[in-house]
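Attaching the record inline, Q. Sequence:
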Amino acid sequence: MNKTKWGALACGLCCALCVALYLASVRGEVDAARAEALERYGGDQVEVCVAKRDLAAGEVVDASAVVMKMWVADLLPDTAVTDSSQIIGKRLGSNVLKGEVLCSRRTEMSDSELAVPAGMAAISVPARPVQAVGGS
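Structure, as predicted:
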């Protein structure tokens, strides 16, 4: 090998060593930040069902719509679903956004009836969500 090839090889090895040291440093910072967050918000973690995609009200939840993820227990709502069998096959009563923890309360449907005074009639008027009051 000539001197140019040896120089290029030495530069390459030096660059690889610098990258490895940088990655080790970043990994240490991430581990420290994670430990600090767990200490601040609670160290106990629970595996919960999380929406893989946006789910619409009225949709029946299937296995492809949920994923199990670890979550800090102190940040979870009381009705968070910890077993996918508790939510799969149930119809949602409200929208669930992608990445949101699924709760059993989301499957509760309101059976309330509209009270129409005597002598009056109720009609439905179709509207786009942007035109509707409160988006409903």
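Helices lie at 3-41. Residues 13 and 119 are 88 Å apart (CA to CA).

More tomorrow.
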